[in-house]
Amino acid sequence: MSMSNASILVIGLGNLLLSDEGVGVHVVRALAERYRLPPAVELIDGGTSGMDLLDALAQAERVVVVDAARTGQAPGTVIEVADGELPAFFSQKLSPHQVGFSDVLASLELIGSRPREIILVAIEPADLSLGIELSQCGREAAATALQAVLRRLAAWGQTPMQQTVKRVGEEQKAWLACA
């Protein structure tokens, strides 16, 4: 995965087959669909990737990771976690991809290529059952998380511009959900 001029990555992590566990990917997809990004910002659908993200992360100056995480808060709660607190959040296994991401963070430290700043936008999941749709709570939390990402990008001097979203028919929505 090569980065163009992007110095800021927004990575959505999660398993789309486990309802709210896929919330990070849903947030990144909504950002891509609804906003035009400045050239310094790149979106990555990280899915359940682990070490596959290493090269992109090593080249980035700043990173926002959006993911479901056990925070001990009420379902749907969205929190931002700064650099020093990240290992604690990725040490508690919610799904297999988190172990991979903590390994990526450790690898970046070892090779001396860690981004200057990494922020986790963590969403407490309400439903981790088999399913490709977010729960109602998950959808509301995804909207809140999207706003948190936009605020973070603006704080870093990179404000995406909202664009008109084309309405998609129900048949196309079903197809897009499976794509």
Characteristic terms for this protein:
disordered C terminus, 6 helices, two-stranded antiparallel sheet, alpha/beta, 179 residues
How does this structure look, described?
By secondary structure, the chain is of the alpha/beta class. The protein contains 6 helices and 7 strands; from the N terminus they run E-H-E-E-H-E-E-H-H-E-H-E-H. The strands form 2 sheets. A 5-stranded mixed beta sheet has the order 3-1-4-6-5, covered by helices on one side. Strands 2-7 form a two-stranded antiparallel sheet. It is globular. The two termini are 20 Å apart. The model is unreliable at 171-179 (pLDDT under 50).
Q: How are the SSEs placed, and which strands pair?
A:
Elements: E1 8-13, H1 23-34, E2 35-36, E3 41-47, H2 54-59, E4 62-68, E5 78-81, H3 86-91, H4 96-111, E6 117-123, H5 136-155, E7 161-162, H6 170-178
Parallel strand pairs: 1-3, 1-4, 4-6
Antiparallel strand pairs: 2-7, 5-6
> Average pLDDT, to the nearest integer?
84
CA(first)-CA(last) distance: 20 Å
Measured as a percent range, the helix fraction is: 25-40%
Q: Shape, please?
A: globular
SSE topology string: EHEEHEEHHEHEH
Q: Tell me about the biggest sheet? A: 5 strands, mixed
Total helices: the number is 6
Strand order in the largest sheet:
3-1-4-6-5
Strand fraction equals 15-25%
Structural class: alpha/beta
